[in-house]
Amino acid sequence: MAAGQKPSEEKSMDKISITLTLYFEIKDADLFGGDGTVGYTKIHSDLRISHLEHFNAAEYAKALAEDTAKLLHTSPENMKIISRMEYEENTEE
């Protein structure tokens, strides 16, 4: 528990979550047709605010890109984080 924080406040903090969405452009992934293709995906992560004290967004994004590249059978170098606007411009959502 944080200094000066009451037990009821700590329990309340466990109920708060933040949704982080990362948008990716992905090249050469099998799922999108293999070599020479480009696809797009987004990944939502719900994170409890009580677990974010030492959260490093850059490290999290890098690890997520690496794991997603493995899943999609492509190289992590083929994973590019893009903006939501760029994602929406290139998808039919």
**If you average the pLDDT, what whole number results?**
87
Structural class: alpha+beta
Number of strands: 3
CA(first)-CA(last) distance: 42 Å
What is the overall number of helices? 3
Biggest beta sheet summary: 3 strands, antiparallel
Provide the gyration radius in Å: 17 Å
* Rough outline: elongated
Unreliable sequence segments: none
Strand order of the largest sheet: 2-1-3
Q: Element order, helices and strands?
A: HEEHEH
Strand content: 25-35%
- Determine the fraction of residues in helical runs and give it as a percent range: 25-40%
Short overview:
The protein is of the alpha+beta class and 93 residues long. It has three helices and three strands.
Your description of this structure?
Helix content is 32%, strand content 28%. It contains three helices and three strands. It is α+β, with helices and mostly antiparallel strands. The protein is elongated and about 55 Å long. The chain has helices spanning 7-14, 57-71, 84-90, and strands spanning 17-27, 38-48, 79-82.
